[in-house]
Design a protein that fits this description.
Rossmann fold; N-(1-d-carboxylethyl)-l-norvaline Dehydrogenase, domain 2; eight-stranded mixed beta sheet; two-stranded antiparallel ribbon; 12 helices; 47% helix; 15% strand; binds acetoacetyl-coenzyme A
Length: 295
């Protein structure tokens, strides 16, 4: 396994391309928009600089990583040479089904098709291909260069051999893989999203304000970020779509998204990516609580 294609140059895609290239794989990052690829390269460069400054890698490591990294807007030609493809496109089922049907046409027969989906069924994605035994979930956490976990999700038809290959590969990336079954939310989001939703309900019901809720969870539970800050970091649209998958998948009202979350997504207050969510990032170094939540 040498040639890796990563699809989608967003927050997750650029982090995934970064860690594969840093581990010596030849990576092609693919996106439909050249400007997204240019932005991803700038972010990867900045994150590598951060690692050099901290002394966790050398300037030579950085140069070697960038040498392993290519970008392309042509999915077909990139996929035709791949040993592994990791899809990290927008969290939209129709888009993922279309991409996987195309990958099945373009990729060599031996190629493993992985998805970084945070909650969409791997079994459903695999059914869009004629090689469901070679389709698997590889769910990285954000920020990818920092977070150690990879949730490895076995679809209904994923083979033992492909699962073993991806578990082993995740270790080669310096990550700790955890194998899980394909049920709504897998493990990470089945537990994380109800906590975030409950924090939003706690705000909505007036128990406490944004900073109070986050401080309780940071200082009381030693979480690196409070749940509302974390929701902004993940993206409120992503949180809402994962809660909807849990709600629909289990048919259990305990997963119903808080109406405040629904309203904020409708109003396009999506967190870091739009500059405002539970916090307002007009000055990124000093985010303030959005004024309409002040008590
Ligand atoms: N690339 C490379 N290195 C990075 C980085 C990046 N994008 N972001 C941070 N770092 C490094 C820093 O250089 C620093 O390195 P050292 O430990 O060597 O000093 C370290 O990470 C810590 O960073 P900072 O000092 O800047 O800031 P911090 O201590 O506040 O940590 C954080 C930042 C790592 C993001 C931390 O706040 C954290 O762990 N937050 C929680 C993240 C989390 O829960 N992620 C999972 C989200 S859920 C998900 O991704 C899945 C899903 O499906 C929704």
């Amino acid at each position: 396994m040498n040639q890796v294609v990563v699809i989608g140059a967003g927050q997750m895609g650029n982090g995934i391309a970064h860690v594969f290239a840093q581990s010596g794989y030849i990576v092609t990052l693919v996106d439909v928009r050249q400007e997204s690829l240019d932005r991803a390269l700038t972010i990867i460069d900045k994150n590598l600089d951060r690692q050099v400054t901290k002394g966790s890698i050398t300037e030579e490591d950085k140069k070697a990583t960038l040498k392993h990294l290519n970008v392309s807007t042509h999915l077909q030609s990139a996929a035709s040479k791949a040993d592994l493809i990791v899809e990290a496109a927008t969290e939209n089922i129709d888009l993922k089904l279309k991409i996987f049907a195309e990958l099945d046409q373009f990729a060599p027969a031996h190629c493993i098709l992985a998805s970084n989906t945070s909650s969409i069924s791997i079994t459903r994605i695999a059914a869009a291909t004629a090689r469901p035994h070679q389709v698997i979930g590889m769910h990285f956490m954000n920020p990818v260069p920092v977070m150690k976990l990879v949730e490895v999700i076995r679809g209904y038809s994923t083979s033992d051999e492909v699962t073993a290959t991806i578990l082993d590969l995740s270790k080669k990336l310096g990550k700790v893989p955890v194998e899980v079954n394909d049920l709504p939310g897998f493990v990470a989001n089945k537990i994380l999203m109800p906590m975030i939703n409950e924090a939003i309900y706690t705000l909505y019901e007036g128990t406490a304000g944004v900073e109070e809720i986050d401080t309780v969870m940071k200082l009381g539970m030693a979480h690196p970020m409070g749940p509302l800050r974390l929701a902004d970091f993940i993206g409120l649209d992503t949180c809402l779509s994962i809660l909807r998958v849990l709600h629909e998948g289990f048919g259990n009202p305990k997963y119903a998204p808080c109406p405040l979350l629904v309203n904020m997504v409708t109003a396009k207050k999506l967190g870091d990516k739009t500059g405002e969510g539970f916090y307002n990032y007009a000055d990124p170094k000093n985010p303030v609580v959005a004024p309409f939540f002040k008590r």
